[in-house]
TrEMBL record, chains A, B:
Gene source species: Pelotomaculum propionicicum
Coiled coil: none
PROSITE patterns, alphabetized: HTH_MARR_1, HTH_MARR_2
InterPro entries documented for this protein: HTH_MarR-typ, Tscrpt_reg_MarR-type_CS, WH-like_DNA-bd_sf, WH_DNA-bd_sf
Location of the HTH marR-type domain: 1-136
Gene3D superfamilies, A to Z: Winged helix-like DNA-binding domain superfamily/Winged helix DNA-binding domain
Name the UniProt record assigns to this protein: HTH-type transcriptional regulator MhqR
Keyword annotations of the record: DNA-binding, Transcription, Transcription regulation
Keyword field contains Transcription regulation: yes
Gene Ontology molecular functions: DNA binding; DNA-binding transcription factor activity
Origin superkingdom: Bacteria
UniProt-listed PANTHER family: TRANSCRIPTIONAL REGULATOR, MARR, TRANSCRIPTIONAL REPRESSOR OF EMRAB OPERON
Amino acid sequence: MEVTQCINFLLTRAQHSVLSYFRSRLDEYDVTPVQYGILSCLWCKDGQTATEIAQRICLDGSTITGILDRMENKGLLERQSDPNDRRAIRVVLSDKGRQLEKPLGEVVKASNQRVLDIFTKEEQELFVESLKRVADNISKW
Amino acid sequence: MEVTQCINFLLTRAQHSVLSYFRSRLDEYDVTPVQYGILSCLWCKDGQTATEIAQRICLDGSTITGILDRMENKGLLERQSDPNDRRAIRVVLSDKGRQLEKPLGEVVKASNQRVLDIFTKEEQELFVESLKRVADNISKW
DNA sequence: AACAAATTATTTGTATACAAAATTTTTGTT
DNA sequence: AACAAAAATTTTGTATACAAATAATTTGTT
């Protein structure tokens, strides 16, 4: 079987294309796609712990550490220790991080539409549904 | 918009799931998914240059260097200098690399089927087609 | 032939990403 | 209270990945 017909290859290629498109659109805000994911998580509910954020966006706990480091250095957020559980840290948005909600929200919405524009409404739904089914199914194995 | 409804997030999550499944299946052969991609490329045509391989599997040239290093250390392949163009290197399979063709081919074929098993034949074709359309379309922008 | 431009591969720097181990703290059991 | 087990985060080590810069070589132009 040709490697280029392998489902892992096809998914990886599609994901890379979409990721770089999103990266290019987010670039002017000095935010990466995964950093947008964390911001988005915090816009929804500020002050979550690192573990909560990691679970929400399906990342390993140890991956979060470095990403939060870089976001803290850029002044997007702050780590605060949780008085009730000193193991935990609470991740809190800065003004800068909060103010990005509207512009980044618009950029991501537009990018999303642009990517899905090549499909009809029905195809879009089927495609999104299929991606969810693949991810959910494998995580059960 | 919820980050979990973002097409970039959905694609990334599906890709991660499939990638880790493939990784787990390839693990007993001490080969990673991208290393399988390079092997597969060479089984098809041995002695390709790093650039040819990179283009074939859609990787940046500078990414190839490290992957070939690790594969060379594991004795899967060898770098040979091209007498006709001393800038180029020819990547040549070792016996070990060649002998993996059959067992890895089978593992990947089975993994592929297992991932796609959740779909009907029609859904499979539409899904694969959609992934290609997404990747091809964005690379034109 | 001389030299600019292009090509091939590598190096350097940065960002994800995960696994395994380590650290600190909390929870549960005896 | 003592201590084992679990939980939250970080650290360390390894593997992708890309961008920009570099080095060596080849190609194209004058």
